[in-house]
Amino acid sequence: MALAIFSESHLLCVTCSKGILVREVPKSDFTKSGLQRVVGSRLDSSGFKDSDRRISRNCKSSERVQRRLRVPRGRSAFQRPTEGSEARAAPASLTSAPPARPPPSLPAEFGVACRRPGLAPLPLWLLRIGFQQPPPRPDWFYQLSERQEGGRASLPSHTKPIRNATAIAPAPPPPQPPLPDGEDALLPHLRSEERISSPSSPAAREPPAFWTMPAAGEAAAYSGKRTVRHGFPYQPSALAFDPVQKILAVGTQTGALRLFGRPGVECYCQHDSGAAVIQLQFLINEGALVSALADDTLHLWNLRQKRPAILHSLKFCRERVTFCHLPFQSKWLYVGTERGNIHIVNVESFTLSGYVIMWNKAIELSSKSHPGPVVHISDNPMDEGKLLIGFESGTVVLWDLKSKKADYRYTYDEAIHSVAWHHEGKQFICSHSDGTLTIWNVRSPTKPVQTITPHGKQLKDGKKPEPCKPILKVEFKTTRSGEPFIILSGGLSYDTVGRRPCLTVMHGKSTAVLEMDYSIVDFLTLCETPYPNDFQEPYAVVVLLEKDLVLIDLAQNGYPIFENPYPLSIHESPVTCCEYFADCPVDLIPALYSVGARQKRQGYSKKEWPINGGNWGLGAQSYPEIIITGHADGSVKFWDASAITLQVLYKLKTSKVFEKSRNKEDKPSTDIVDEDPYAIQIISWCPESRMLCIAGVSAHVIIYRFSKQEVITEVIPMLEVRLLYEINDVETPESEQPPPLSTPVGGSNPQPIPPQSHPSTSSSSSDGLRDNVPCLKVKNSPLKQSPGYQTELVIQLVWVGGEPPQQITSLAVNSSYGLVVFGNCNGIAMVDYLQKTVLLNLGTIELYGSNDPYRREPRSPRKSRQPSGGSSSPHNSDDEQKMNNFIEKVKTKSRKFSKMVASDIAKMSRKLSLPTDLKPDLDVKDNSFSRSRSSSVTSIDKESREAISALHFCETYTRKADSSPCPCLWVGTTLGTVLVIALNLPPGGEQRLLQPVIVSPSGTILRLKGAILRMAFLDATGCLIPPAYEPWKEHNVPEEKDEKEKLKKRRPVSVSPSSSQEISENQYAVICSEKQAKVISLPTQNCAYKQNITETSFVLRGDIVSLSNSICLACFCANGHIMTFSLPSLRPLLDVYYLPLTNMRIARTFCFTNNGQALYLVSPTEIQRLTYSQETCENLQEMLGELFTPVETPEAPNRGFFKGLFGGGAQSLDREELFGESSSGKASRSLAQHIPGPGGIEGVKGAASGVVGELARARLALDERGQKLSDLEERTAAMLSSADSFSKHAHEMMLKYKDKKWYQF
């Protein structure tokens, strides 16, 4: 047991093995006698100690605690009441939460209560913070959910804030009906145990207000769903570096903070106001950071906890903050304002000092103009009492803090952007708006010693060089062994039009100009010492660019850059889609890493990454996780996302198979897309077989196989597919169409036409309509394919009668069947990629046959359709010019392609407010890359525009009369229809390559409300039936005879129900649409369970995922809610408000995966991961890395004997005496407002979320304290030894010379 006193807040803290008790004590009782009376134990003159201090159990303290908390005697204050108790009950709408596990009764050690009457009871969260078992949470707690950008929780709209949490005593929930098999195990692992009676309950609406959780430590484990954020900070604005802790901080224009340590140690924080960060200042080696925002607020962040929190805030009310400076090892922060004044803030208390430097006292009295805002503040490295103040107008003032007057004033006729000191304190350098640098001697204020124009043209007649662009920042760093470094950004000549931004490094007589890919936001020079009055010895420069972070090695010739280990290249090309896979095969990540290691660039610095602060967390989750991102340039990146880290594994460039147009005249086929014709729309990946299939924006599909061998493909296999359905209101020249070809329907066999070796040439009718032309041209030359994913087949949709191919809306691949299927608003196509043939090519209406509920019929003959895309008419060279002219007309009719999401926000907002039957036909997968049909097609009615929205290969029952499952394809459409296509596959081995696959619609039709999003299948026990897959094998290595025999006998890996089960309950089909979800019993096709997910909104993403050996349906709705449902009963398990759908980027990239994980693209450059799993939330605190580690501050530079004797060293300043309240007085209350932060004592003490975190924190604190005491003891012993030695030598010297005269020396 231990006691602790917080005298300022009048709190008494008692700890034991079962928790912490905090009690409020009156100020009058903070005496020895008073505390004896309160605690009930004797205290001697030595005061409180950390051991062997027991609290007397004779005072019946437990009864007093129960009486103070108004809880009936005989029950613990933290125990839920039973029915009929006299405690006040919670609202009826909140009593549906399952009962929490009962805590142990309060031990006698916790019975500390004040005998003085009239003290209000403390809140429940302050009374007990348990170590072994958390206190049971009231029912309203389970309703809380975290907002998007803040660490706050919000109450549902039907829940009122409960002010007295200690009196909450809800009645037990009503008994719940038993769950189906396998569902009971799911409940404890959900993040929130909320049971919802109806999806249309008030909880489904957006909460009206924030509710701040007081216990930061507990809220971190239960209410915080966001885990980590990866990627480059979006719109960066500020940069800071701790040279001792080796931590880098980046602030953004949206108020975000990103902290980087060693690779794998990152942290994301957010200011609640969302104002732009204008400057960051580390308290070097103190574990704290000061941030200055554009709303004139200063914040002090505590970095000594895994999730940094704000300790204090200071809001300036009358002046705008422009610059801040915090000297090394000082607690006084200088704050410059737009008015030209300088205020001083005590960092410890975050209060203003009465010491103020007014602008009118700093400048000359004869000056009639205002000097402008403060743009620079720094103290003299050799004299802390001299403060250098730079004003925007060009005036620099050296201010004497003690005498409160200006020593020197330096004036220049150009505006100042930055100032930097020489470490000796005798010179400083200024950068100006005309591209010049001026070097000044401190004691010569009349004119600069030297004026340099780094990029200006020097004129021969001695005139002033031509003005250049402003030098935004300059740094002056010295070395012991050579010339100083002058590093600057900007200053280029105005005649360098189109030149990229540059960083200039001037070292002696050499000048290096380093071009950057993006605009320079800020840069910092990394030095060996944190002391400004010593040789800095710079070794690297951190350059923060608009979209990148670059680290330059100054110690090597040529200034090479370091290889960046952070996952900051997510946005190298804009992300267009992403997929998330958890619990992948264990050998998959090493395989991808081995092929990706060969793609690394050369020419990096050979040194290790110098930003290496912090420690890694304890990874409690060991299952592999992979994130796949598709990009606008056609690239696909694989990322290792295991244990909340992110590392790029492998990059695939899909554009390598196409001919790239070198000029505008050379691209007649890609002009339907203005830019990014290779952009990825949909990714379909099978982790077990490693088969990859992508769909691009130019209506192309590419199938890839994984191989560890390098191959050269002489001819790239390719198929062209004509997929179009027309009605008679489309203007087409039917009189001169070629005769229609036969199209396979029903169970007809496809014709095994060999794939094309190169794209077909375009054909045109007499009126110049483009026909049989793909959007991209496949290379006809041999293609060298490196180890990794190699092209198996390229499929392209072609133009038909002047109509461009429509975007692909759904895609699926199955390695066991050797099939790939895709669909769009025109129809569906199935391809056998083993035999390179088209098996199915039907319009959506043709899938219904005679069972079409809309009774739609093609009212005009279809154009010629080629099932295999084999032949096409030759190109008519005489009509080329005519066709090109017609293409321009077609382009004006089509809406142009847009890669930016912002243009679709208005369209999406309209979609949010409309019901399903009135929504515009938007692509669910990727709306930003959707290309609308031409104006001639927009007149087609709604039923004719039914698109394929979901595809799923499986082995199940296709008809009601089936007695055994068979391979089939389930097809979902945007009108809520599910159709089943039966597949008759030939035997495996060589027969598979020779015999055709028979495809036939089964006639089964199921209906749901809204577009179909996802389908899956369960067995009778509720276990997920994964699609059949072919295990991966190296196909580029010749097989032996034994392996071929095994291949013939091997059957696809699939999961089928046992034959002993009854047919009536063999399988369940789970179908999720935009509005509802259904569970269909197979083969009877009866609806077993049904759930209306939402009425006022619609589902954007739905996935069937596994969570703790159980299966559930996870949905993300457009109104910002995340919902989960048990399977197969579809009982609501979770409904939390997460974030509103502000743009289509979120809808396009949001995805769920197994084990309660999800992610989405929170900005164009960042991926946000989140969890709704209770287990992950509990382990998150241990998995996060530590930013702050105990590091000893380097010793100060040696002043030397003569400098110490004659006063030539650095002059110290007693800032406490100068700026303290006793000498400078109090600042005006109206000038700034102090705001206590949520990360104060409560946040710091309660940041840990469990036994391991608390013990680790205590152990770390003890180790740090013991280390400091040990170092102090060693230093004391060394000083004692040195003093003894000095005394001995002095005594010997005295004995030697005491009898000698002065002339004998």
TrEMBL record:
Coiled-coil annotated residue ranges, if any: none
Topology within the bilayer = Peripheral membrane protein
SUPFAM superfamilies assigned to the protein according to its UniProt record, in alphabetical order? SNARE fusion complex, WD40 repeat-like
The record ties this protein, via PROSITE patterns, to: V_SNARE, WD_REPEATS_2
| Pfam families the record matches | Lgl_C, LLGL, WD40
Family, per entry: Belongs to the WD repeat L(2)GL family.
Q: How does it assemble?
A: Interacts with STX1A and STX4.
Write down what this protein is called: Syntaxin-binding protein 5-like
